Amino acid sequence: MPKKVFITGASGCVGHYLIEELLAKTDYELYLLVRDRRKLQIDLRDRPNVHVIEDSMQNIGNHKELLRTMEFVVSTAAGWGGEEAFIVNRDKTIELFSSLDPLVCERAIYFSTASILDSHNQIIPEAGEFGTDYIASKHACLETLENSIIRDRLITVFPTLVFGGAKDKPYSHLSKGLKDILKYVPYARFLKTDGSFHFVHASDIAQVVTHLLTVPSVPPSPARLVLGMQRLTAQDLVAQFCEFLNLKVGWQFELTPFLVDTIIKLFRIEVAAWDRFCIAQRHFTYDVVSPETFGLVSKYPRLANLLAEVQ
């Protein structure tokens, strides 16, 4: 009998790529939780192994009997702010995983965020103390899940900066704003700052998650996988943007942390505690995994691959 997979947030950017990858690589029965089935841009005709459940995470308790039959669960659903963030990202996500039958469930994949980790993939207390609603709720949820009844089969993935989207898939928040970012490159090329980060494309996330759902065993608990490509510095970013726009990088003015702090004070700019923490941090780098880690081939290994699709 084919394995059953319950997927939340199925109508989102990552959800679309994941569904497409699972349909291409497995014979699994897919159960897709979506608030509005009209947002699914995948042609599911002649797909008897795909079941669309039109409901929200707030009502996950209505599906406990179904969840107890699932071998696999992938939770990508997220609330982005306010009270909804804590309801969806903490309370209802904990309820979702608590509804699984330990005798049936083989693997549970939970999508968190790299923002709650330090450079060694350890949870930072600041994320819970003064992170945004989204970050604080993710922080609270992870601690509970890693001590739950399914902790030995739990895999938490921490996407870094997520890009993705196409004509037949919704765009991620970053990909939506990529064109606007490019408008500022002619001015930003004159600035120099110290910082670094990782990015990952939703297509590569889908590759990794599908692999995790098809291999015989799970990594040792607690399994924390930060998804990202090679580290990029702020200067790498400017240089690659300029190369794409055929611009030269010449003299640059160094934007130091002291200068940024001075500008904030001088112009009385309101900066939240989490934003101030991020400004001081500057480097958002981790021990990352990519498709290559698992013997796969990344479709978007470099920033240039993303820019090549910008219309």
Automatic annotation (TrEMBL):
Pfam families: Epimerase. SUPFAM superfamilies: NAD(P)-binding Rossmann-fold domains. InterPro entries: Epimerase_deHydtase, NAD(P)-bd_dom_sf, NAD(P)-dependent_oxidoreduct. Residues 5-227 form the NAD-dependent epimerase/dehydratase domain. This is NAD(P)-dependent oxidoreductase. It comes from Pseudanabaena yagii GIHE-NHR1. The lineage of its organism: Bacteria, Bacillati, Cyanobacteriota, Cyanophyceae, Pseudanabaenales.
